[in-house]
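Internal ticket #5521
Category: modeling
Description: The requester needs a full-assembly model to guide mutagenesis choices. All entity lines are attached below as received. Residue total reported by intake: 589.
Assigned to: D.W.
Attached entities:
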Amino acid sequence: MRGMIRVNRLQKWYRVHQRQPGLGAALRSLFHRKYDEVKAVDEVSFSIEAGERVGFLGPNGAGKTTTLKVLSGLLHPTGGEVSVAGFKPQDRVRGFLQQITLVMGQKQQLLWDLPPAETFLLNRAIYDIPKAQYAETLSELTALLDLGPLLNKPTRQLSLGERMKCELAVALLHRPKVLFLDEPTIGLDVSMQVTVRDFVRAYNQRFGATVLLTSHYMEDVAALCPRVMVIDKGHLIYDGGLPELVQRVRPDKRLILRLSKPVDRKDLEALGGTLVDHRDAEAVVQVSQALLQAAVSRALASLPLRDLSVEDPPLEEVMRDLFAQGRAA
Amino acid sequence: MKAYPQLLRTGFAAMVAYRAEMLIWMFATNMPLVMLALWSAVARGGPVGPYTQTGFAAYYLGSLLVRLMTGSWVVWELTMEIRQGTLALRLLRPIHPLLAYSAENLAAVPLRGIIAIPVVSILLYGMRAELGHDTLSWILLAPAMFGAWLLTFLVMSLIGTLGLWFESAGSLFDAWLGISAILSGYLIPLDLFPSAVRDIALVLPFRFLLSFPVELVLGKAIGLHAVKLLAVQWTYVGAALIATHFVWRSGLKRYAAYGG
């Protein structure tokens, strides 16, 4: 196996205490406990090269975060082999921890009642960052994320977006080679999501860092990750390019029609596809790839068009169909 | 360890940010004063064992001083962080989380010192007749105080780490606290116990959390005997360190990093 991140037949199983609600069940559980084994990650294998940006997709409880936690050394795997930057993550040796970072959108490492600058100083000492490198990285991060006015305000007084920018900065001060980002844009508004995405891309290009990202916002993945891995119920069900995934799951296309005047529903259905949306002078028609050319010709000939474009189905729909296929299989 | 001075500085900054909470904690640590009032009333009619009214005052002010300077809260923080999964953030940093906790706890000592200064002043000037005159005992006080702090911190860390196995580590610590309040001399000086209980209490680790430094201050442990007691205290510190190390290591294999 080669690569910055190598995972071979990774398994992570949890033992979960099962208990019915109610007082009787509580009393019974004092004497007899029933445990279930949950296979959070089961026989997952993949390899990621240095400098790659990879999106890790899957529904809630699919095993994404568990995998990230194993890769960052927080969890000991039940089985299989894992290597990150040449280290066995669960050993948590200093050399390994200095090369990685894990940003969790729902948890923060900034000290709540102190300004972010204080956490920065703390991390400088903990990671033993040379003074000159610290000053250079901090000024770069400050410029990229516009942190200037935030550094000396108590963290508790920052907005969610401002806090996430500082979280990213503090997580990257030591210039890690591997970034594990778990829902880094959760709860952020659209413009802040764009800021975070642009920043992650800039960091990846500037330092050649490897990025493994989980997000429920498909725009994050589409904008950042040329490669995606899809996990469902602990199994890796896809590993490859995003366009190929869309092509495989939803080979149909969408005709986006903007019309100069409203038209009847039957005129749109006559194009040969399924009418997905129809509002006044706008319509979306889904057609199979085989019929696409004919449908476009028909639209151009028969409809009062102002504009016509062909798009892939929304990624959310692609993922929903993919997981539905997985469940049906 | 290179990062330790910065950890202390940041811990101190956090303490200053939480100054109100800190002051409330310090003023709530008033059990020795309550016990002082009780025993002073009892001793009004004549000495109780070796203690006169002033003797009790010196003992309980000494206890208050040791309690203020050696207190720690790592067990609460550790059990909470294990339950909420935030321990993960500490585990991601290239520094042992217990070392980081120790700096945060030690950083509180200067602020506590502010409260402790008047207590020390009263002790030194108001009750100097009750204090020990053995120079060696006073020299040993500093390592004994540090040993008491370290033992408190390590026992708390050990019990807190057990939270990696079961959720009721907090209750276990409550039990430890209950026993410790009696056997460390926090509520009653150990030399007032019936001899059978006292003989056991004198060799258990609880004594070295509080009673031993107070014994040094009051001149009850002097000379070679005091040195031997210090050696016993530090043996307990060593044992607690080894136990914490192994419990921590095997506990992390079970760590589930819940949440998020």
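Resolution: model delivered.
Comment from assignee: The first helix of chain A runs from residue 23 to 31.
Ticket closed.
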